[in-house]
Structures are given as C-alpha cells and as structure tokens.
Design brief:
Elements: H1 2-27, H2 51-59, E1 64-66, H3 70-77, H4 83-86, E2 92-94, H5 99-118, E3 127-130, E4 147-150, E5 157-159, E6 165-169, H6 174-182, E7 186-188, H7 198-204, H8 211-214, E8 221-227, E9 233-237, H9 242-247, E10 257-267, E11 271-279, H10 280-298, E12 310-320, E13 325-334, H11 345-348, E14 359-365, H12 367-375, E15 383-392, H13 395-411, E16 419-427, E17 449-458, H14 464-484, H15 509-522, H16 527-531
Parallel strand pairs: 2-4, 3-4
Antiparallel strand pairs: 1-2, 5-6, 6-10, 7-10, 8-9, 8-10, 11-13, 11-14, 12-13, 12-16, 15-17, 16-17
Bound molecules: flavin-adenine dinucleotide (FAD) and 2-acetamido-2-deoxy-beta-D-glucopyranose.
Length: about 550
C-alpha cells in the first residue's frame, strides 16, 4: 500500500511536470530558423564540379540541386529525418520526376563507377538512395560528398479499379498513403508510424498492424517497378522476373532502385488500441512474465490461442532522463474493433490488464489516427539512433536484457534529454510466413521470436559517441546473455538495424544464394554492391 501511495505521488508529480513543461514550451517565443549556411561546394563553379555531376546537370537540368542553391539544398538535406544524417552533406542531390529520368541518372552513376574502376580508383560508395529518409542508421540514405538520389517525387497513390491493390510511390510517407486511401475506404498492409517512407520500410521487411493477418509488408507487394543498373525499367512480379520479385522482399537496395510498389489492400475498418503506462521499478517482473506467457500461449497451437487480429504486444521500457524514471509502456492493438468498444477477450485474458499502472486508456480509432498517434513519439530533426537484436521467448533472457538496459541507462543518466526506449515486439509462427515468400530467413520459424530494439533520443552533440556506443554495447550484451542461455537467434529485423549490423547473415544460406544470383544477373558489374552506400550489402564478410 505504502509503495502504491508513493507511486500515486510520483504519477501526480509526473502529470504536473508534463503540464509545466508544456506551458513553458508554449510561452517560449517562436524560434527564428537561422538562415542556412553555405556548404563548401556552394562557391565552386559548376564546370569545376566532378564530371559525373556535370553530366547529371546537363542531362537532368531540372532535377539536380547543387550546394550553390543554398536554401533548396539545405531543405533537401533536411529530407533526412534523424539529425545525425542531416550533418552528412552530399555534393548534390538529384530528384528525378519519373522512372525514365531516374534511369538516366542511374546510367550516369554506372558510367562513373566504370570510370573509377578503369582508373584503378577503389570504388567506395559514392551515391545513396533515399525514399522517406527516416532510417536513422548513420548514412543509411545519404552520403558525404557524393550524390543522394532523392525519390520524394515518386509519391502517387493509385488504387486498382477492383480495389484489391494500390500502387504506391516509393517516396510517399505512410501517413499520406493512408489519408489518401481513407477517401476510398481502403487500407494497405504498411507502416505504423506517420513519418516513415514506403520504400525503405517495404524493401527491408516491414511490420504492419495487419502483419498477424497478412505477414510482413514485403510479403504483400504484388509487384515492383524497378530501375536496374543498366538504366532500364522493369516490372518484377510473380510472372515477370520472379527471381527478382522474390529477392526484393527483404533485399533492400541491393538490386536496383524501386520506383513504385503495388500493395495488397483491404477495406479500412476502425482499430481497437490500448496503452498501459506503469512504473518499471516494481512492475517490470510482472510485465516480463505477462509478455513471456502471452507469447507461449499465442504460439501453443491451441485453438484460438493465435488471433490474427491481435497486433502487438509492443512492450517498451523507457528511461526518461528529465525525470530520472523508468516507465513501462504497453501497446495492444486489435484490428477488429469490438462493437462495445471494450477490451477484446483476447487481450483481457492476458497478464497485461492487471499490471499496476499510472495510466491506461483504450479507444476505437481509425487506422490513420492510430498511425498519427504512434508517429508522434519522435519529431523530425532529433538526435536519434536505433539498433536491434532477436532472442527466443526465454523469460530468464528477458530479465537479463532488462538488467542490461537498467545498467546502460544508469551509466547514461547524465546525458541531457535522453529518452531511451527498450522495446520488445514479437514475430509469431502463426504469421511469420504469411503472404508471398521473402528472403528474411524465417521459413522454419516454429517458435515466437522477440525483436528487441533501442530507439534512443538525446539532446547534445557532445553525447553522440557516448550514446551510440552504449546502444551497441547494450545489444552485444543482450546477445551474449541470450547465447549463454541458448536463447539467441540469427534473425535481425533489418528495418531497425544500426549501420554496423549485418542482417543478411541471419537470412540463411539459401536466401543469400538467391540474392547473390539475382545480383549477378541484374547488376553484373556490382553497381549496387560497390557504388551504392547506406543500408546493407550482400558481402557481409567485412
Ligand atoms: C519513428 C520510426 C518509426 C518506425 N516504425 C516502423 C514500423 O511501424 N514498422 C516497420 O517495419 N518499421 C518501422 N520503422 C523502421 C523503418 O521501416 C526503417 O527505418 C525504414 O528504412 C524507413 O524507410 P524510409 O523509406 O523512410 O527510409 P530511407 O532512409 O529513405 O531508406 C532506408 C534504406 O532503404 C533504401 N531504400 C529506400 N528506398 C529505396 C528504393 N526505392 N530502392 C532501393 N533502396 C531503397 C535506402 O537506400 C536505405 O538504405 C520505424 C522507424 C522510425 C525511425
Ligand atoms: C538491362 O538489364 C536487363 C536485366 O539483365 C536486361 O533484361 C535488359 O535487356 C538490359 N537492357 C539493356 C538496354 O541493356
């Protein structure tokens, strides 16, 4: 009882603090955006720029943004969502309007790679591909002194006449896709967070609120329009270039540049969503047990134990430096809202509702509203990093992981503005292989997997290295704890990987072989293995 009173005080203090901070924020005068500063190439005459950039300018005059166009260039650089990627400054940004223009750009990049090869210059990555620009991996979709291929003009959303699929441009943001589809009463199997781009999410795998019903997002792409290394535009589907179609389901930027995806769609319907916020200090053990028991049950094979409408649970332990507290946030979603809007039986029967909580809420809302709400957790332009690992459903390993998280956040307690969510999500055998075959390597998945990810924000540049290395160490320690208990697993959810991770190592030999064969066939000179930077290459030996 005494501890409950204490926590009521804490909860009240938390509410007061939040209000005060909100008020303070409101009272601050609106900050003037400083005028962007020119980057070093801004004063270089275009005829002194590298030859391939001059070719891009000559062939695609309306698509190339140079540093000398100071405001437009800065705006294009800020197309990267995470602040650290806004500090990686390319020589220029090329923003084609259609697949033909993109093909022209790729042909020029290919010629530059050939030239470098002939000149004996080792070909380091000199161009990057950007759709939503949200991937926080350092240099995931930008490149210092090279060319960023910006796909933001590919943003159309075109439903098929029969309503069964929707063709979506790679540069669209999920929130814009859903808003447009609301007008048609449709939804696609896509991302759960508003700012995220279609391209990166879909090419790396992608988890949707509808994944328990339909599988990974990539397994619901009926076809792809892609620009190959030789600049030609092809369609990859079950009947056209099927080998390419298969490897694009998880193969990210290794085969070409995708311009549009045709995704399966379904009639939109409201979701039921709940959030529970609890104190980690005396509820973590109970929360971990609830999570573990839920996963065991949902994968037990008992009738009704796996429910394809149940998305989640997403369980985050969050360290909030500002208040020096660790919270637990649990999100549960049910894609078929109960008529009475109350807790669906499936979630009511779990250990989550009986957690002692500061706050709990549930609501029936549209899919679009849920995506907006989930997307509000991080604003664009913040210092942000993300990394992941995978463990089996072993309670002891989960407890060890939590202890590692506690240790890391204690070490980082002086990092100003630190918000350190340590998130547990699951891939259940009931849905891991729904939809079309992909290359993720989960064919043999017969047990529930837990994707753990760190999604960390902080305030100051001086802490960049400290935080990044702490995230890496945390993941390595979790891996070691899992290995010690034989609860490790090779799969890595690529969408959440940090730049040093090697997700293709976890895809299994067969899938890697399929990808290498497709790379040799569709990109024989290795433009996307060598010239392209960011994301993850097939040669993971380094
Ligand atoms: C706040 C937040 C919320 C998230 N929510 C989810 C979620 O709900 N579900 C989920 O599965 N993931 C989620 N993610 C992870 C997300 O899927 C990845 O970060 C993804 O890479 C972002 O896609 P993008 O197009 O915005 O990224 P970008 O940074 O533009 O691209 C990511 C990678 O894909 C490559 N790429 C992009 N487009 C193409 C293309 N057309 N052709 C070839 N290569 C391409 C890029 O070169 C780069 O390596 C979230 C991430 C954040 C930061
Ligand atoms: C480009 O490559 C593809 C795939 O290998 C091939 O089918 C096509 O004929 C090539 N196009 C040109 C113009 O060389």
């Amino acid at each position: 009882m005494a501890s409950q009173t204490l926590y009521l005080y804490t909860a009240t203090a938390l509410a007061v603090l939040t209000t005060v901070l909100a008020l303070r924020r409101k009272r601050e005068p609106p900050r003037q955006q400083p005028a962007p500063k020119p980057h070093p190439l801004a004063s270089v005459p275009s005829e002194q720029l590298p030859e391939y950039i001059q070719s891009l300018l000559a062939k695609l005059p309306n698509c190339v943004i140079l540093q000398s166009d100071i405001a437009a260039f800065q705006q294009a650089v800020d197309g990267s969502w995470a602040q650290p990627n806004r500090k990686i400054i390319p020589a220029c940004i090329v923003r084609p309007c259609d697949a033909q223009q993109l093909g022209t750009a790729v042909a020029i990049l290919k010629r530059e790679q050939d030239r470098r090869g002939q000149a004996g210059v080792p070909v380091a990555g000199f161009f990057a591909i950007r759709s939503g620009g949200v991937n926080p991996g350092l240099g995931a979709s930008t490149v210092r002194d090279g060319v960023v291929v910006d796909l933001s003009k590919f943003c159309e959303v075109v439903p098929a006449v029969d309503g069964s699929t929707v063709t979506v441009g790679t540069g669209a943001k999920w929130i814009d896709v859903y808003k447009r589809l609301d007008e048609e009463g449709l939804v696609v199997i896509g991302g759960r967070n508003s700012p995220v781009g279609v391209g990166g999410l879909t090419l790396q795998g992608g988890i949707s609120f509808y994944s328990p019903r339909f599988g990974f997002v990539c397994s619901n792409a009926v076809s792809y329009e892609i620009v190959l290394a030789n600049g030609s535009v092809v369609t990859a589907s079950a009947s056209s270039h099927p080998a390419l179609w298969r490897v694009l389901k998880g193969g990210s930027s290794n085969f070409g540049i995708v311009t549009r995806f045709t995704l399966r769609s379904l009639p939109s319907a409201p979701l039921w969503a709940a959030q529970i916020i609890a104190p980690a200090s005396f509820q973590h053990a109970k929360a971990i047990k609830a999570y573990h028991d839920y996963l065991s049950h949902a994968s037990s094979g008992q009738p009704g134990a796996f429910d394809e409408n149940a998305a989640g649970p997403i369980m985050s332990f969050v360290y909030v430096q500002k208040i020096g507290l660790k919270l637990i946030s649990i999100n549960l979603v049910y894609t078929k809202a109960p008529e009475n809007k109350q807790w669906p039986f499936h979630w009511k029967e779990t250990g989550f509702p009986s957690l002692w909580s500061f706050k709990r809420s549930h609501a029936v809302e549209s899919h679009t509203t849920a995506v907006e709400r989930f997307g509000r957790t991080a604003p664009p332009g913040t210092r942000y990093t993300m990394g992941t690992t995978t463990i089996r459903n072993d309670a002891e390993t989960m407890r060890a992981a939590y202890a590692i998280f506690c240790q890391t956040t204690t070490e980082l307690r002086h990092v100003k503005g630190l918000l350190f969510p340590f998130v547990f999500q699951t891939i259940l055998p009931g849905w891991a292989n729904k939809g079309d075959p992909n290359i993720l390597g989960l064919e043999g998945c017969t047990e529930p997997l837990i994707i753990i990810n760190c999604a960390v924000m902080w305030a100051n540049a001086k802490d960049d290295e400290l935080v990044r290395s702490a995230v890496r160490r945390t993941l390595e320690q979790v891996d070691a704890a899992a290995v010690a208990r034989r609860a490790d697993h090779p799969y890595r959810f690529m969408n959440y990987c940090m730049e040093w991770q090697r997700p293709y190592k976890g895809c299994g030999e067969e899938n890697v072989k399929l990808m290498r064969e497709a790379s040799q066939k569709y990109d024989p000179d290795g433009l996307f293995q060598n010239g392209c930077t960011g994301g993850f290459r097939l040669d993971f030996s380094s």
